[in-house]
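Researcher: Following up on the earlier apo prediction. This time include the ligand. It's S-adenosylmethionine, with the SMILES given after the sequence.
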Amino acid sequence: MLHKKYDFSVNDVSEVYAGPGGKLWELLMGEQIHVGGPEQTDVLAKKVGLDTGGDNTYLLDICSALGGPARQIAEIYGTKVVGLDITPEMLEEAKKRTEGKPYANKIEYRLGSGLDIPAHSETFDVVWGQDAWCYIRDKSRLIEEIYRVLKSGGLLGFTDWIWGPIDAPESDADYLMEFMVFPDLQTLDGYSKLIEGVGMKLEEKEDLGEDFANHMDKYGEILQGAKQDIIAGFGEDLYNEAEKGVLAWKKAAHENWVSRGLWIAKKP
Ligand SMILES: C[S@@+](CC[C@H](N)C(=O)[O-])C[C@H]1O[C@@H](n2cnc3c(N)ncnc32)[C@H](O)[C@@H]1O
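Model: Understood. Below is the ligand-bound prediction.
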């Protein structure tokens, strides 16, 4: 199936994270707003070699949100991290949560877009992303920008939500994307082609669909368990909308319409 792009702008996405959306996702997933939390951060860290020399590494986290992964990487591996995010409210909160930490001097937060990365060419040893580039419409440009800011020999490591191996009926696909405010999802091979298309060597690609579906079950349970608190904090309409959306994503994950992937690639 030819997957559609959706008309959500960077501002639409930013509004979600500046408002109750960001808080709701934190409630479901924790302050690391990706599937699998700190454990998955550790998996990705090892795959990009932070466990063997992370203290000599300069890493860019594109879509760093509340800075949870940046703090973990700086604290555990001694890595110097730039967290880049387009939503000022997320960036401010990330800074607040980092202030006073013994490793705070290892982290710098920058306001900006992954589509126009505020950094010189050939700056970073590692470019990193977790479950966030689904919010970025122009993935070709994103991957070109990543290539530009990576040093020669540098690594790209990321996970993201993707279309699965089975096509969703069009109306379900539209609803899934509109609920999440996703302008574009890639497939496992779609991302691989973009990565290879800029001249990077793909070292690993993995479909994590089963784990994704299991986590969707968990998010459904957490949401329903927190129903009264969510209604008290955000209102009944928002709860009902969130429940409908999360249950739709849970179904889609179990039907293999959607999935989550991991990619590791090297700039020659
Ligand atoms: C799901 S959260 C990211 C979670 C984060 N990677 C983590 O693991 O904690 C999505 C974030 O992407 C940011 N974002 C969306 N579009 C962006 C863009 N074009 N450039 C930079 N950040 C963007 C949003 O502001 C939001 O904070």
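Model: The chain has a mean pLDDT of 96.
Researcher: Noted. I'll compare it with the apo version next.
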